[in-house]
Structures are given as C-alpha cells and as structure tokens.
Amino acid sequence: METGMNPERQSLLDALNIDHAIVSGRGCHVRDAEGRDYVDFIAQYGALPLGHAPDRLWDAVERFRTAGSPTLLQPFRARHAEALAERLLGLLPDNLRWVTFANSGAEAVEAAFKLARGRTQKRTIVSARNAFHGKTHAAVAATASPVYRKPFMHDGDGHDYVPFNDLAALEERLARRDVAAVILEPVQGEGGMIPAEPGYLAGVEAACRKHGALFILDEVQTGLGRTGRLFALEEDGVRPDILCLAKALGGGLVSLGACIASDEAWSSSFGYFHSSTFANNNLSAAVGLALIDALTADDGALLAHAATMGERLRARLDALVGIYPDVFQAVTGRGLMQAVHLAPLDDPESLVVNFMNDGGSSALVVCAFLMHAHGVITMTPLSSTGRLRIEPPLIVEEADIDRLIAGLVDYAEMVRAGDLATLMRVCYAPEELRPDRRPALVAGSAPVRTRRVPAAANGNGANGEGRSHGRYAFLIHPTEFADLAGNAPRGLADLAEPHRASWNAFLAAIGEQRMEPFDPGIALDCPRIESATGVADGHLIATMMLPEAMMALTPRERKRLVADFADIALDLEVDMLGLGAFTSIITRNGQDLADLPFGVTTGNSLTAMAGSEAVRLAGLRHGIDPAETKTGVVGASGSVGRIVCRHLANDCGAITLFGNPDNPNAVAALEGLAGSIYRQLLAGDATATGPIAEAVRAAAGRSEEVRRLAAEPAKPAVLRALWREVNATVARENRPVGTIEVSVDPDAGLPEMDFVVSATNAKGSVLTPERFKPGAVVCDIARPPDVAGATAEARRDVHFYEAGVMRLPGDIAFGRHNIVGLPRGVGLACHSETIVLTLSGVRSNFNLGSEIAYDQAVWVRDRAVEHGFGTALVDVRSHEVLAMERGEA
Ligand code: PLP
User: Fold this and answer.
1) Which pTM value belongs to this model?
2) I need a labelling partner for 142 at 20 to 30 A (CA). Which of 514, 744, 772, 883 fits?
C-alpha cells in the first residue's frame, strides 16, 4: 500500500502483514478497526509512560486551555517551562542547574554536544560502540553503528568510540586529553537493552573529572521511571555534567526533550547563541509537569509499580530461558526495558532462513507472529538483530505480562516442534494464526540439525595423514526465482494458492531487499570433502539477490557487496574463494578480488571443461557421435564459451560459433577465436585427434599461406586470416566436416545443429523452442539457464541437459536445494573447481579475467578426476543424472 510516506518502512510492514489500522487506544491496549485488542509492549520505544490516552495528562491540557495560557510567546518568559525546569532540577543531583528544552531526544543530545565543545573548546566526543543517541547529524555521529552514519557520508569526524563497559579502554582514550565529553546510556536501549555494569558509570565519571572531559548521561530512554526509578543515575549514584531527557517527558502527548547542565558545563556563549523556536513550549511543559506529578504522586506509587512489574517481567522471561534455552538464549535489560535474545530459526538447510536470521528479519517474523496470533505488540531494537524488545508503559499489569508470556510459550512450542511453516504464515496467511482459526502444528517436521564446524577446529595446513587440508568459500545467489523458492523453510515447498502467491511475494521482497541497512552476505557451512590426497572444509557465502537485482547495483553498492563477501571470507580464514553465478561478472571475472590474502577463482575452467565434455557424454547416451555431426556453441566468445570451443575442437566433427547479432564486433571476434583455436591445434596438441584437428593439420600441410599465418604473432587480423585460409583450403578438398564456422544468425544456424552447448551470460532464457533440430542434444551451461522449462516441454523430441555440473566424490548436497536445485551427489562445476583447487593445495589466484588458458583448464580437469569428481549431466525433464565413470577422463 502506498501512503505518501517512507516506502521502505511501508514495504516492511506490508511484507509481514503488520500494517494494522489501529483506531483507538487506552492504557496499555489499542484496538484495530475490527475491534481486535492488542497489548502494547513497545510504548513508542519508551515514549508512552502512562500508555495511550492518559486521562491525567489530557486533564492538564484541558486546564491549560481553560486558563487561556499562551503556548509560545518569545521573547517573554515561558512560565510553564520554567516551572518544569525547576521541578526537574529539584529531583536531580544538585550539581545540575540549567535546563535547555528541546523537541526530541536527538536535539537534546545536539545541545549537549554544543555545551561540551563550547565550554571545553575541545572537539572530540567519545561514545560507546553499539550506542544510540539519535539520528540528527551530530547525534548520529555518536551513534557508533556505521549503518546509520555511512549512507549519509558521516565519517565520524570529531567523534571516537570505545567499547561499552570497558573502563580501561575509556581511560586510555581520555588520557590523550583532547576529549570534550563522553556520552553514555545507562542501558543501551536501541543497541539491544544492555545495562552498564555496576560501578562502570561511576568509574566513567571519575575518569572524566581526572582528564578534563565532561560526562553526558543520555537518559532519553531510561529516564522518568523506565528502569523502576525516576532516573537510572540514582541506581548508579552518578552526577553527570549534562543529562539528556526526552521520550517519556512528553507523556506520549507532546514532543519534549531537555538537556540539563551543571555550572561546569554551561557557558555564556551557549546561553547567547543556542535556541529553538519550539523549545520553550508552555503546553508541552504543562504536560511534562503533569507527568512528573503522576510519577511522584502517592510517594512514587507509580514508580514502585513500574519497579515491581519490571522485576516480575524479568523473572518470567528468565524462567522462559530456563525452560526453552534452545529458543530463548538470554534476557538482558533493566526494569521495564528488556530484550529477549532469540536463538536463530533452526533450518540450516534453507538459505532463506539463514538470511532472515542474519539480517534480523527472523526476529521481525516473531514480532509479527506475536501480533497476529496473540495481539501482543513487540519490536526488535533498532541496532541489534535477533532480539525482541519488551518495553511496555509503566502502568503495565500482571495480566498483560501473562499474555506476552503465553505468546512466547506458543512460539517456543512451535519452534520446538520444528514447525516453521506455521510461523511463516505471518507472510502468507496471517489471519489463520488467530487462536480461533489456527490449524494444528505441522507434525513431524522437527529440524534436522547439522553440526557447525567451529573455525578453530579446522586448522589449515597438512593434517596428520599427510593430506593437504584447506578451507574454501564459494559465493552464491539465486540465479532465478525457483532458487529462492527452493530455499524456503522446510514445509513451505508445497503451498497451494492463494498462499503460494503471497509467500512468493514475500520471497521476491527478500530477493529485492536493498543492501542498506542489511549486510548482504551470510555464511553457511558445507559438508567436508575428502579425497585420497586432500581434505576441504567449505562454506557458502550467499546473498539473496536475483541476477536483475545484482546487475542493477550502483558501482558503490557493488563495491560494498564485494567488500562484504571478502570480509566474510577473511573471517572464515579461507585459502580459496570461488565465484558463483553473477558474482564473477560484478567482480570483472574476479579481477577486483585479485589482491586478497587468499586465492580466488572464477571456476570458469572446470565449468567450460565439464560443459564441453558433456557433449561426448550425451552423445554416448543417444548414440550420436560428435565427430560425425555438427555442434553449435551459443555464447562462444565469453570466457567459458572460448574454452568450451577449444576443448570441443579436439573431438568434434564441425563446430559453429554463435555470437550475439546485436554486437557489431561479434563476427570479427568469433573469426579471431576460431583462428586462435586452429593455431593451438597446429601447435602440436597430441590430444586433439578429431576431424577438425585432422583437417587443420592437413590444411597446413597443403597450404604455404596457412603455415605462414600460423607462425606469425597472434594478432587479431592474423588469426582471422588464418581462420579464413584454413577454411578455404578445407573447402577445396570437399570434406563434409572438419571446420569451425561462425554465425550471428542463430535462427538460421541453430536448427542445423545436432549438439548445442549454451553458455551465455544472459539474465534469462534465450533459446526458444523453434531453434532446435529434431532429436538434437542440448547441453546448457548457463546460470540462469538459457533453456526455459517451457522450451523443454514444448520440444519433447529434443534432449535437454543441465551441463557445467560435476558428479561429486560422495553423496553430498549443499543445503536442501543443493544451490540451484541439483540432485544429491552433483555440484556446479565452478563450485567443484574451488573444491578441487583447495584439495590440491592451490592457495593463489587461478585463471582470473576473461581469458582462461586452455592448459590450465585441462590441468584442473585432471586434478578433478584424481580427486574423484567426474563430468555429469542432469536431464532437464526427468532430473536423471548422467555421469562419467569414476576415473574416466
Ligand atoms: N538517545 C537515546 C538513548 C535514545 O534511545 C534515543 C531514541 O531512541 C535518542 C537519544 C533519540 O531520541 P529521538 O528519537 O527523540 O530523537
């Protein structure tokens, strides 16, 4: 639904179906248009201390109105604002003396920074890693997470960061004596509800005094009752130089913040030169005053209630961790700001689930589930994934907590039963999650657990048996929508319409997800592969982008994606990195990754070798001899296509190289390629015994011009002339087969081919049904495939195979979908190349760039055979696997 407001936020709400139309609210509860009741455990991230529609505060507004009080009246004194300032100062440590009102938390933080720099005349503001202080330009600079800073070109100039709860690190930083102020939260809220350890804040205060820095305490979220005390500083016994308040101060009715300074922090320049039109709003102050009255009335009864509820909430959540440690890993926080740390959803065989775990959307799915199934509103903290934030109004009741706990228990039981399908209904059938409509748990789908191999357990280098032992990673992404769908959580493969369409829409949203703020790559462990001489432990590094999304990335986004891949590979301490699918293209065939401290391969060599050997394998099956028939190569001038052509020339009878008709240089490039293959055949490759090799050698024997051209430096014009001369010589002999032809007219040429090998880089299928000879054999190397399923159905007389794949040395699969839906025991050849190089002890770059050396490709094919891999084919219609016998080259 388009709203005219933030479309990114809206699409998230739409994907999880949590765009409820809330029409009314009172206390901790709100109602939607259908009259459904929800209990609010978010309270606008702490800004609704008395819940929704608080009578007490509305009464204050009424009184303000009835009295005819002016809201804004600069330059005169704002009497309500003054009264609120006085009230606040009376409740705070007596060193705090001067209140500056603001309109938000971030603005209060901005004022604090101006105070600190103005007074100390030093520049640096030190904040904690994982901190959150708001999103205006200066506040966001103190918000350490680069996610919030980087997109806006904020480099953190004038800011520095230290680990939270690490006093020694702060002391060391302060010792440089260039720090204007240190800003900290008593409990890191958006960072995941992480409290300061006892004594830490007092230590910080002392360190600041010692080194001449000011101490800013950001109680925007913790202040005014959230932790069970009026201010969290009471518990820590600290006296900051500047205190920031906001959120609860406005009582959920108005925007109000405050920056409260000591004499040591105040300066006359700040007094003269800082102000804001809306800052001393009397109406806002009247609400703030009424809120303070509510909190302090009856000897602080509401604060005591909040403290009690905080303790009960925490005890109940801790108990859940005790009962379901496999579902809830921990609880952190203080008072009524708690976070439940969720275990990742357990379906390691599903890339989609792994991606959701890593990017934080699993936790959002849990929030959506609690909302749909139990009418409980929770959210995740802004900067920490995998946590549920629990932050109800201070007036929360035991019955509300009961409802939250019941929802969490329901979730835990569902996860324990392995029923991710029901959980994922938030994306495709949320209404069926309501208790009255809820289907029984999907039985018998308990998770299959795979062991994650800890990095330290697999040291590199030779192992005890003298075998080469290495670690690799292979980059993947879905090359077509079917790959995304195939990677769905267990139980979701067979959805019927209309659920299927909704689920597919969710998957599509995942595939299109912009990289910011998510880290695009995730890592998964692969099964170990062993051969007689090597051991390879591997990982898949995956992103969920479809080819269109990847190719649409801006250069900056591509760079970031590739850098993220490289970082993950570095963390995994790999020896080799292989590039799957379009990751080769966006790294210029690996050249952009050439300087990493591990080897990189495009995997194109083995892809080309397996793709071309597929012709022989398929020929054997169908009783068609490539030496006596015609083979066409589509996408011949690509880096894979070139090696395919070169290898086919060893045994094939006649080859036609097909190029792109839209490329004006295609013919010249193909002629040059054909000439270079002739030249290589003439250079005396003994393995080439087929008709083409024979014809070329015969032509050289007969034609002086062929010999002369073959001896000249291999310039494009020379190669083209060589090609022309050889073909003319062969034609004079009237041989039926024995040449390489070129064509940019696949419509005319392809229907004459007995074998077709297709290896384009197209983003979708390019080979249409009418382009094949009856009974032809088609070996499709391209990812995504050049042959669509519909084509295979339309031409049942043609034999269609997925090629560029290998039989693995064992009954192995990489995830439930085996990367692109390959049968067990079969792997992509580019992935296999990465494994083979790792098993062979190669630790350097292998064949990067678009020109692959043929002898290197032969070398890696031979190593593959030694390690037990073999060329394979998968029948597109029946999924039957055809593989070379072990040991057969
Ligand atoms: N400081 C802290 C500790 C916060 O939690 C927040 C908001 O979550 C802010 C500052 C920013 O407040 P606002 O969103 O009102 O700008």
Assistant:
1) 0.82
2) 514
